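Subject: for your reference before the review

Hello V.,

The reviewers asked for a structural picture of the protein, and I figured it would be easier to keep everything in one thread rather than splitting it across files. Below is the amino acid sequence we used in the manuscript, unchanged from the supplementary table.
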Amino acid sequence: MILADLKNKIKAALNLESAIFAYPTDSELGDLSLACFELAKSRHESPAKLAEELADAARNSQEIMNYFQAVKAVGPYLNFFISPFFLADNVLMTVGKEAEKYGFNTLGGSKRVMIEYSNGNTHKEYHVGHLRNISYGDTVSRLLHANGYEVIPVSYINDFGIHVAKTIWRWKQDSSYQSSTEDKGYLLGKCYAVASQLLKDDPAGKEEVSDIMKEIESRSGDNYKLWTETREWSIKYFDSIYQELHIKFAHIFYESEVIDAGLALVEGMKKQGILRLSEGAIIADLEKYGLGVLPVIRSDGTALYPVADLALASEKFQKYNLDESIYVVDVRQSLYFEQLFKILGLMGYRQSLVHLTYDFVTLPGGMMSSRTGNVVTYQELKEQVLTKFLAETAQRHSDWKPDRIHEVALNLTISTIKFEMLKVGADKIITFNIDEAARFDGYTACYLQYGYARLKSIMRKDPPDDHLSVDATLLREPAEKKILIALARYQEIVVSAGEKYSSSEITKYLFELVQLSNDYYHEINILKAESGIKRARLALIKAVAQVLKNGFTILGMEALEEM
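And here is what came back from the structure prediction:
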């Protein structure tokens, strides 16, 4: 990696075992900066004096000065100014050569990591909260792949819980669902929301639901047949959403396929003493580990979530030979996963287990719940955003055919939805505001896509040469050096974002790169410059476009050539 290699050369030449570099916000202070406080403390010197000594040593080192045009001590800071010629040559060469693989590395050592996300429920709505899970899980999967891991993305769908029985209970009562022309998978979610409300104060209804659930679990009878039919509707509906969001799974697990193995595991764990009977239920007593009690089987004999989760984990480890298993599930389930991981440890599994949490998505009016119907479903959200973009795209391009307008508007819709889910740190609550998300200025997907499309427009007017055919030393403007350093930093951003499972580091980087390229576009004459300089500048914006596209790919966004 370009900047990492430079840092290593400095550390080797100056005999610095550990050194943490920063990037000054003011380019007049240098391109790399080393604070000498900790180092000076270990050497019993003043930071300012040590900075001067190191600056002298650096200036006398040919190994360092081959790559830097100046090294200066400013108080306790040691500042390095990278040679613009070295920078331009190496950045354009590396980006041009590696293209869509620029930013990839082998730090993961091909370790096998399974990441499980989009753990939805059949017979329920697919809403905005689910979109955060699937967008975040997909980006983390892509980040790990870029960092050299062998990633196996999977989804686990709960198709066998009590929510299914509630939906079927209501579905049978209301014939209007069956006659409706709406997508049946989508209708099931509406039906569940109504059922949940009706069952709140209906003890008899709850008994009926319990009977339906037992029949489904017995895999016989009319309710089981209806479950089979309605389950397929939900699966098809989910598949259509995955296709629109460009999500691909290596495998999709279903609770109904592992529940029997889970029940067999429960019997074995009872004999081992890992689980025990308590008032007719089966529980995991984890009090001595400070993790409380986890119910596994209800007193009426029906299974709870751990039954299938334990069986699924066992299947994962045995079938896929994993080094690590990551679960992307919201922060409300933190205790549950601590309990689950403890039980798996007691069962003898020693693989790394990670619960990757994220916070809630809310509406401007408050929280969402599929039990109350106070949700913005995926379908509703998509239609609202798409309608806005269809109108704006048609207004800008009256000469475009309807299919082309729809294609671009849908792309902007998907990009907008994903970006809003990814630009906020996973530990922060998202309040999804459609009007703000669809803006073409500010920290939005539209701003990034427009910045990319503008670069592609310039390149169509005068296609850039191959990176080997330009004289990169002609890129001498301060703005050009800023962009080159930003492009070089992308490699480090991918590493850092992967280590922290941070989608927001990628979104922030791309936003800042678009800002730099927009400023450059307005300040510097590109197409009317002298021939050699023009070719170098076109090669530079080609590199910017490539890195933007690479970042979009990690976010699961398709780059728009024109909009």
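For the response letter, the relevant points are probably these. The mean pLDDT is 94. The first helix runs from residue 2 to 13.

Happy to draft the paragraph if you're swamped.

O.
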